[in-house]
Design goal:
The chain is mostly helical. It is built from 3 helices and no strands. The chain has helices at 3-28, 31-39, 50-81. α1 (3-28) runs antiparallel to α3. The longest helix is centred in the C-terminal third of the chain and has 32 residues, at 50-81. The chain starts with a helix and ends with a helix. The mean pLDDT is 84.
């Protein structure tokens, strides 16, 4: 493995960690999520099932989308060099 590939791999992992952290924080700040977690009028629409259904998908999407982007950019860069 070359030094550039090591840097790209490290950058992909770092972006994945940042995405997996930022996505749930963004998800929690949305009005729809706050309503489901008890922010509605007199607990109207309160549904803790979103923690089991939506939260894992948000974390996975936050982790894999940056990783997918880095992979695609890497492939495009390698094609241009060839």
């Amino acid at each position: 493995m070359t030094r550039g590939a090591d840097r790209l791999t490290c950058a992909g992992c770092a972006l994945s960690a940042v995405g997996a952290t930022a996505a749930p924080l963004l998800w929690l700040s949305m009005p729809r999520t706050r309503r489901h977690l008890g922010g509605g009028f007199e607990n109207e629409g309160m549904d803790y099932g979103v923690l089991l259904t939506e939260l894992p998908l948000v974390v996975l999407a936050g982790a894999f989308l940056p990783l997918l982007t880095v992979t695609l950019l890497s492939r495009l860069r390698d094609r241009r060099r060839s």
